[in-house]
Recover the amino acids of this structure.
């Protein structure tokens, strides 16, 4: 029996990791495909996000992005199933991706990408990398057949750091829509290339680069250091803003007021998983506010 394209898609699940500037574009477009959707993001909406993250409005400030994005997308397309997780994706909760047929990377850091790479290689699951700075963006499909992300990026450079320059809205829309186009092709079983696509929307110049598999790549050899939690120290400073993430063992129930998944205490947002986001000028100030208001 031959299934229609829409029937095939209705049985598929797409995970979008990171619902920021690129991720809001990607998830809004995925939402129209008629697939099931999983949204994961560790962050809350900040006032300056309203300038470039298309799903958020003034009343969403200080609320978790994953939750707000899911609500908005359900409004637009109530027929599809959306699960959202306000969590920091780590090797400990990576099974959040188990239901996904494809993972769309819209994160802002290499460490999570190494983790996604390990996970997808181990599960033989495709994923698509998308990144951008200002007017330039990069996109690449990883289907597990060719080169992997760790063949290209050495973990020693830039781990835990991220760009503070930001990505132009038009760039995010360009790379997000290409990412979803490629995802659609993969989901319906079409063959996609595994070359690195680079686009500068300022010059409209697009190039594709053939990338070689690295002979000594550990991930390709089945050594999943990030998935096993052997590599990677979680950067405490989140990207491009004065927000620090602190993760300690905390009794969330002690602080929560109702059935909510997060609670705001002055400049701290505390989540169910014990994670706290602290608005502060530096790490010292963040730590001190944390110990005063939360304890430890
Ligand atoms: Zn590799």
């Amino acid at each position: 029996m031959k299934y229609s394209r829409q029937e095939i898609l209705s049985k598929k699940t797409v995970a979008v990791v990171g619902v920021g500037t690129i991720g809001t574009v990607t998830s809004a477009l995925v939402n129209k495909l008629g697939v099931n959707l999983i949204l994961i993001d560790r962050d809350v909406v900040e006032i300056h996000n309203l300038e470039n993250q298309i799903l958020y409005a003034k009343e969403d400030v200080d609320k978790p992005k994953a939750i707000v994005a899911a609500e908005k997308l359900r409004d637009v397309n109530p027929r599809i199933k959306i699960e959202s997780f306000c969590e920091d994706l780590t090797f400990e909760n990576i099974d959040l991706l188990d239901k996904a047929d494809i993972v769309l990377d819209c994160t802002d850091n290499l460490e999570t990408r190494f983790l996604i790479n390990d996970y997808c290689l181990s599960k033989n699951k495709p994923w698509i990398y998308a990144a951008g700075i200002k007017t330039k963006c990069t996109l690449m499909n990883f289907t597990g057949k060719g080169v992997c992300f760790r063949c290209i990026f050495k973990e020693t450079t830039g781990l835990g750091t991220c760009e503070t320059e930001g990505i132009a809205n038009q760039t995010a829309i360009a790379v997000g829509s290409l990412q979803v186009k490629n995802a659609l092709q993969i989901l319906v079983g079409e063959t996609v290339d595994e070359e690195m696509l680079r686009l500068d929307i300022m010059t409209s110049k697009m190039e594709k680069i053939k990338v070689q598999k690295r002979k000594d790549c550990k991930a390709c050899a089945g050594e999943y250091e990030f998935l096993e939690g052997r590599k990677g120290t979680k950067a405490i400073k989140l990207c491009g803003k004065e927000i620090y993430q602190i993760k300690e063992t905390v009794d969330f129930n002690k602080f929560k007021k109702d059935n909510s998944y997060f609670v705001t205490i002055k400049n701290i947002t505390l989540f169910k998983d014990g994670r706290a986001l602290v608005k502060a000028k530096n790490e010292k100030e963040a730590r001190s506010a944390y110990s005063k208001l939360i304890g430890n």
